[in-house]
Structures are given as C-alpha cells and as structure tokens.
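Batch job 17 of 40 flagged for manual review because the log was empty.
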Amino acid sequence: MIALTPDLVLKAYACGVFPMADGKDDPGVFWIDPDWRGILPLDEFRVPRRLARTVRSARFEITVDQAFDAVIRGCATRTRRRRETWINDAIRQVYATLHARGFAHSVECWRGDQIVGGLYGVALGAAFFGESMFSIERDASKVALVHLVERLRVGGYTLLDTQFVTRHLVNFGAVEIRRADYLEQLNEALERQATFYPDSLGRVCGSGTNLQSSTQMS
C-alpha cells in the first residue's frame, strides 16, 4: 500500500485524481478518477432567493482558515443523516499538513463562538478542489459555499471542482462534464495564478451582506 502523503495528494489533484476512504474507521484509501466530473461554473453560480436572504441577514459570521481542524472534524463526523464518512484519520492528517503548507483552506460559519458549519478544499493554480462541507445549523454550509465562490471569483480562480454532483449542488448550478473536458479545464487552470486572499476580502468576512452583487438568484 502506497503511503498517503501531502506531495502525493497534490500530484494526484494535478492529474485529476483524488483520494477517499471506504469509511471513517478504514485505515486505507483508494483513488477516484471518474468518467464524469462535477464542477460548479463560477460564472453561472446561482443562489436561491431564500438563501440570498439568509446571506444578507447577518445570521452567521464568516471566517477563512481560522478553524481548519474543526471544519474537517465536522465533515468527518457521523450524523443521523450521514451514517458514514469517507474521511479517515490518514486523510485528516494529510489535509491538516496541506493546510499548514498553504494548499488546503477552510471557510467557517459561526454563531457566536460556536462553529455551526463550513467547508474545506485544496487550491492549486487557479483551480479549487472542494472536498466536503458540514452543517449543524440550517443553511450554514450553503452560506459558506456562497462566500467561497465570491472569494474564488475575486481571487482569479477559473475552476471549482465539486468531484460529484448532488441534488444540493445542482441548485447552485453544478454540472457534470466528461473526464477529457475536465482535464482540459484543469490544465488551463493549473497554468494560471490565483490568490485565496484577495485584497478586498480578509480572513474575517463578517456577514457577507454585499456578496449578492455579482451572483445570480433563482
């Protein structure tokens, strides 16, 4: 069995491949290279009207890269709706290292001093590979996604990889494309430069009441 390392994970992403585990308690990982890949086109991102109102309501405070471990632990937690998770200890450790090296990022939603949702992923060039999200309060992970998309747009990213397409992501405009088309977009994105910390957006983002200016609503 090949050991999972941060450098191996980065090389895999650059080739269009990503790791998963069969379950939280399974120590091994396997590599996924799907025939059809989920992406969320940044210029076609849609926000449902009810969610747009939630984003503007200042219900949550949003931060970036302030609680990466708490986010990945939230994503790896079994719940009544999610009986199993593909995030095992090996994956958690590797992505924590990627975060420390500046490749993995998190977006956090807070209610007071409690984290109630968020998401994390990996950035390479102008590509962002969304890994997982969690929510213990309604809409928290969705609000985090809205903030992520705005950050990627402002920062110059061209590809948001969602790996798979779920009914939840379809509501935001996610689509499936063939592997060859995905690899073409990936290679173009890897040749570009982007920043996860654009000057106009800090690490503590507040409520994000101005995020709707460039976002389609449905």
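Reviewer: the log was empty due to a logging misconfiguration, but the result itself is present. The chain has one domain: 35-83+103-217. Unflagging and moving on to job 18.
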